[in-house]
Amino acid sequence: MKRTNEDLPPMLAFAAKKHTYIWTCCGCGRSRNNINSAHCPGCGHGRCAYCAITRVQTRPHFSGVPDPDQPSSYSDEAIYPQDPPRIRAQPSITE
């Protein structure tokens, strides 16, 4: 059975998602610039219509149900999509 907002406590049912906005400079390609900064800290270019703005979720909305589209932070697949690299033993140097 799928949980709905009616199943959650009142404070959690109305908790909004927290997002922030960042932008990428079209001049130098520097990304993750704070939306409040009008100029790129890398090259000084002023943010314009060609600079891409991205909405980034900083705190997920609590629904009580894991989102199947998002990887779990406790999954080994999120850290090692394949087998972890094997460490080769270094030959010992004897004098």
Automatic annotation (TrEMBL):
- Specify the superkingdom: Eukaryota
> Region entry Disordered: which residue ranges?
61-95
The protein's name is: Uncharacterized protein
- What organism does the record attribute this protein to? Corynespora cassiicola Philippines
